[in-house]
Structure formats: C-alpha cells, structure tokens
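Quick question about two entries, pasted in order.
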Amino acid sequence: GSGDGQGQILQRFPEKDWEDNPFPQGIELFCQPSGWQLFTERNPPTFFVAVLTDINSERHYCACFTFWEAVESAQPQSHPRNGEGEEEEEEPSSPVQPAQLFAPKSLVLVSRLDHAEVFRNSLGLIYTIYVDGLSVSLENVIGNLLTCTIPITGGAQ
C-alpha cells in the first residue's frame, strides 16, 4: 500500500560463490540506497559505481544500472467518496482504475577492476537486449562479456 518494498535477487552469475570472491551480502540494499519504492512515473535509467571494501581491505567496484518497469497493482481501488460519506452520484459502484506503477529493476556488475566505462557499456548492452526482447540467452551474453580481454591500465592496447 505504501509503495515501499524489498529488493530481491532474481538471477546471478555465477550462481554459486567463488572461494576467493564471495557474493556481496546485501547487494539488493546497495542497489536502491533510498529504498525500493514504486512510482507513478517511469524514471530515466540511472548508472553509478561505488566501491565496497571487504574485511580483507580489498576493493570491489560495484556498477549499478537501474531502469523502471511497469507493474500491475494487485489491489483494486474503490471509488472516492465525498465528505458526507456518501458515494458520488456518477457511477457509484464502478472502481477507479489504479494509476500505472513503475518499479526499479537493477543490473549489477561487481569487479575487482576499476573500469567504469566498460561496466556502463556492458550493463547497457544487457539492458538493450532485455528491453528489445532479443532471442539471445542472458547466460550467453554474460559468458561472452566475461571472456573479453580488458587491457591493464597503462598497458598495450
């Protein structure tokens, strides 16, 4: 009813933790620092990178690309009433159509490398494939992105 909710991880790669690089706990809270809220307008996509430091003082660069998807309201709203508690005369028994609501959905990339532009481009590609409904499996896209060679800073191209 209030429009507030909790984030939920729908899919992750790899599906199981790597021994030397565990999955960051609470990443769903990190994606929406102001909380998971529904809005009546579709917001433009956003992108940010933050640095998380683990218990061993190792940095993890977390790139977050958030976009907004329409959701269907599960609660029908009743027709508004006037100040005297009586229903208005025009169509008193018809329910009011609920406003269209939009929920945030985030794509997150966690890396030990600091390459914000590569993160933005990679997440933008995944977003484009998802929005355009292309018949490419997300697993194949992720696999192809993970096999890309990224030159070290200051190294040969």
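Here is the second entry:
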Amino acid sequence: MSALSALPFLKPLQLRPPRSSPGGQRRHTLPASEFRCLSPGDALSVFEIEREAFISVSGDCPLHLDEIRHFLNLCPELSLGWFEEGRLVAFIIGSLWDQERLSQAALTLHKAQGSAVHIHVLAVHRTVRQQGKGSILMWRYLQYLRCLPFARRALLMCEPFLVPFYQKCGFQALGPCQVAVGDLAFVEMQHSVRGHAFMRRNSGC
C-alpha cells in the first residue's frame, strides 16, 4: 500500500451513489472524484493542461513533456492528481531539493536525499477553474507531505501576481528567487511541513 492510499483525506470520494442496471445489479462506475499520485502514463494529460494554463500567460511552461516524464519516473510519490470520473482536472508535480534556497539546477534535478519538496507546477484544467480546486489540491498535497518522514519544507517559485494565492495556502515569501527564466522574475515561497509524529498517529500515515 502506498503512503497516499493510506491517508483517509486522499482516498476516492464517492459524491453520488453508484448507478444500478435495470436488473438491480450495480454497474461499475469510476469514482466521481479521486486523488492519486501520477504515473508516467499521465504525462500527456498533465502537459496538455499545463500548456494551456501557462503559455497563454507567460509564453512558456514550467515543465516540458520530457521533464514531466522525467519527474514522474523518478519521484511519482511527490505528485498528486485530481481526477473526476477518470479525467485529470488538476495536478501538482514536485521533487526533492537539498539546499536552503532554489537555484537554476532545481528546475531539472531530483535530490533524493533532500528534505525540501520543490513544487514545480500546480495547474487546473480550464473548464474547472474559478472553483477553488487549486486551493483544495494544495491543501491535500501539504497534508500528504506531512506524512512523509523526510519532508521538512515545501518550496516554490511564482510570479508576483500569484503571491497572494500561495499566501492564502499558508506559504511565506522568502524574497526574490535566484532562478530566472527568460525575462521572467520570480518570488520564492516556503511552507514548513511539521507535526510528522502527530500526523502519523492520527491520520493513518
């Protein structure tokens, strides 16, 4: 059993009762809503959502398709996807980092001995935006990280206009990020991941 499936707040949600066939027997249906770690097989769906979300705003994506596959092969346990009736509607991809602040190398490396989770990207499908899904997914992801014994911090870099969103999720701004992508400048943000023993005792971790 994966750490993800052991957590009650990340198990599939049945938002409506299963349909029944005319003969009274249940027909198998996909969960109305479920959360799970992503796999390399999800990479194309991830990239399609990310490309639409970011290219229209910044002209580029945080992760390209080969980089998505790279991280989903190396550390799928640091990703989280939200699926509705089997369709990916939102996701987070992370990797481990072993330094106090992010550097250019953090964009492509997974430091397996690190204790900081670098959140590369959070994106929501265009058809379900403005519904609070990004905040809900981030909350669930941070709860999941609290059950990973090696995770101490979550780090991310974002454009200044996104700072209020991540502050509402509990992140604190650390100041300008050392990383630059083209003409874009970023703010680095941090969220402490604490209470490991308490979470393990009380949430099935």
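Reply: The domain at 33-155 is CATH 3.40.630.30 (Aminopeptidase). DSSP finds five helices and seven strands in the chain. Hope that helps.
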